[in-house]
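User: Fold both of these, please.

Assistant: Here is the first one.
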Amino acid sequence: MARGKLRRRLQRLDQENLSARHDAALVEVLTIPEDFVSPARRIAMRVVYALGALFAAVAIVYLDRHGYRDIESAPDANNPLSLLDCLYYATVSLSTTGYGDITPVTDSARLINVLVITPLRVAFLIVLIGTTVETLTTQSRQALKIQRWRKSVRNHTVVVGYGTKGRTAVTAMVSDGVAPGNIVVVEQNDFALERAKAAGLVTVRGDGTKAEALRLASVQHAETIIVAANSDSDSVLVTLTARELAPKAKIIAAVREAENQHLLKQSGADTTVVTSETAGRLLGIAKQTPSVVEVMEDLLTPDAGFAIAERPVTAKEVGASPRHMKEIVLGVVRNGQLLRVDLPEADAVELGDKLLVIKTANSED
């Protein structure tokens, strides 16, 4: 009964049907980051393309030089064109100047002019007016990138909401080695979207509570979904929708109030973080022992100092106690469950376990 209601709700959310649109219609919604290319390099590239088209035309004319006649220099002769004549003809032809002193006279030369020289002339003109053409073709280029991205994206991370929580989560992931291009941000706020684009992230302009916005972010192929919405009600709805679309993905959700934590769990969240209580605890600890708060912040900041990391148990460590290892072990992850080091089950690590350890931020894993 509840699942039937959920399906009907998802159908209502699908009214926009963004994923069914043509890629060109998604240019203003889905943005794929691209590398910066300086204006000088763009101009240099256009010059290279123009010279390439010119030399290609010269080569084609030179190979069929017996099919052309230079009326001005030898109107009655059937002498083939020189290399300089071919360069001259290609230049005036591609630039559409066309003085008419050198003309194709054989059928093969005329056919080559129609099938090859004319397209080269068009390409040459496009390069010359590249700035205007580039503006006109931006949408097409972005649509092609969207098409390629949607076909190839797999095992990425989707972040719903790019406020303080979402932005901090992305910063932590990038610091841990996650490629920015492998993170997709779903957000409606224009300022937040611009910040995400500037960070090199893939962005989707849309409401994260709606199935179509999540589907456009390829949430069904995502490895991890981070829910950082501005309200607990939105977080529950995003989590419920994401779980329906991606049954196997790992969902991590932030919740403001602890009494709403069970709603996120029921909606399908694997891990929940209570932001208000966490901040409150740190504020309370800071009253008596502010240095403890500094250590906690240091552990949660992977760029410098100490950091919490997860690593697999090696074959030599099997059977050892995590309390007697050189590293400081905080916990043992076995079959997806976290075991404290003081529990009897964690006294001897097993092959396949993972250890939560404290390491220096710049040390090797």
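And the second sequence with its predicted structure:
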Amino acid sequence: MACHLAIAGVTGAVGQEFLSILEERNFPFTTLKMLASSRSKGKKITFKGKEYTVEELTKDSFAGIDIALFSAGGGRSKEFAPAAAKAGAVVVDNSSAFRMDPGVPLVVPEINAEAIKAHKGIIANPNCSTIIGIVPVWPLHQVNPVKRMVVSTYQAASGAGAAAMAELEAQSREILDGRKPTCNAFPYQIAFNCFSHNSALGPDGYNEEETKMVKETRKIFNCPDIAITATCVRIPVMRAHCESINLEFADPMTPEKVRELLAAAPGVTVMDDREHNRFPMPIDASGMDDVLVGRIRQDESLPDNRGINIWVAGDQLRKGAALNAVQIAERLLEL
């Protein structure tokens, strides 16, 4: 069933990825409204052979809209998403604005698609690192409950948007030319460097990205007692995040069983070539829908074979953001 569709934040990195994925998946729409800030008003975008004019995002933008895909930032989502929902649209929001609202479903379709039915006009898309990390953990957790997760992320510039991606490229050129790198999108040099994730630190010493991974995973898994700790880091990669994930299970778990479960899991591709020391890399995951998983091995520091280490790579702009939102929209059309 086709719908009347709107995209808020269409000119950004995730907004552009929305368009790419909608075209690839032949998402059915009758009309499409492209929305962005006043700076982009009037810009022309060609999509599926038709030229669209970008309109300014306002509270009056959603008359007659069925589904609105939002990637306009948390502040704008808080301002405009309720207006869209009031106008009758179902908002799929990519920001952190509503994720921990108990009345808003937080959805990864491979994990908790049934939560979509409980929406009251807004559905939240989880954080990119959360999605990429838990898509391969969920099928394991269903068979053998995960008691504890220790996650270290290696996050690409794409997670901070188009300006950050451009800054990584520009800084690389500046440094190779012997010039001082210009820092605008990031507080520190990203080219040839890495640093603690650039989100705000809380009083406990954890940054917002790390806290999101903990709280969001518990909500999506509907498992408030699962123990999770995370360390999130920016690395000089254009797109696709990687994560090292250590899992402690309730019962023994072998690498062979993990490979078996993940080989059958939706949204996951196993890339675990020990013979050639070949495991998932950002260049493998870039442009891919699936989360890639490798380095599957026993954690020998835990007794009774209850520990497993895995390494994952996933495209932040796709499954970590736009693809997950489009998958939610596809499920909405099925209701």
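The radius of gyration is 20 Å.
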